[in-house]
Amino acid sequence: MKTTKRWVSLYVENQVGVLAKISGLFSGKSYNLQSLTVGETEDPTVSRMTIGMLSDDLTFEQIKKQLNRCVEVIKVVDFTDAATLMKEILYIKVNCCSLADKEEIFRIAQVFKLDVVDYRGETLVVECVKNDDENNEVIALFNRTFPNRIEVVRGGNVAIERA
Q1: Would you say 59 and 95 are in contact if contact means Cβ atoms under 8 Å apart?
Q2: Residue 10, exposed/middle/buried by CB under 10 A (0-12, 13-18, 19+)?
Q3: Distance of alpha carbon 54 from alpha carbon 33, whole angstroms
Q4: How many CA atoms within 13 Å lie on the side-chain side of 51?
Q5: Is the dihedral of CA 79, 83, 85, 86 positive or negative?
Q6: Torsion sign over Cα 76, 35, 160, 86
Q7: Which site in 12, 48, 85, 116 is 20 to 30 Å from 70, CA atoms measured?
Q8: Cα(129)–Cα(46) distance, integer angstroms
Q9: pTM for this structure?
């Protein structure tokens, strides 16, 4: 069966252990999460999770059914084919920068609308808030331009349905 990128958003009770229970459900069934973010909503008793995964249609339907059976889950929203606004925060640290490297980083930042958020000595940190594919392209560019000198941290996707 063909696997594709799937997205689901969960409204869950904002309680200790809920994140562990939901992520445990995935690991217990050997489903691999590609992205998981969680944060409190406008209601402090409710958190919202955005989960990205690769799966086939049958497995994804099973996942949604299992999530709907969890007592702590208030609502499951399938974002896979929905019109959404989705972004991921990405930090790239470039080490051992020469003056020419620093100039190149600032040029790249300007062209791709990135922010240089930290600059100390021979190290710069760039912040990028884009979608998955665009962030992958930025990482590939930095890997090509500064091989073996970058450190990457990704924050996971957050999403909301379009108005």
Answers
A1: no
A2: buried
A3: 8
A4: 26
A5: positive
A6: negative
A7: 85
A8: 25
A9: 0.86
pLDDT of residue 95: 98
Return d(Cα 8, Cα 3) in angstroms, integer: 15
pLDDT digits (tens, 9 = 90+) for 102-136: 999 999 999 999 999 999 999 999 999 999 999 99
Res 59 pLDDT > 80: yes
Is residue 32 predicted with pLDDT exceeding 90?
no
Half-sphere exposure of 70 (CA within 13 A, CB side): 24
- Alpha-carbon distance of 23 to 31, in angstroms, equals 9
Contacts of 46 (CB under 8 A, 6+ apart): 11, 12, 13, 14, 40, 74
Q: Which two tokens stand for residue 31?
A: 């489903």
Tell me which H or E stretch contains 89: strand 84-94
Sign of CA dihedral 106, 112, 113, 114: negative
- Residue 135 neighbours by CB under 8 Å, 6+ apart: 88, 90, 128, 154
Q: Which residue ranges form the domains of the chain, and what is each CATH number?
A: 4-82 (3.30.70.260), 85-161 (3.30.70.1150)
Phi then psi dihedrals of residue 133, to 5 deg: -65, -45
Q: Which residue has the tokens 């665009």?
A: 134
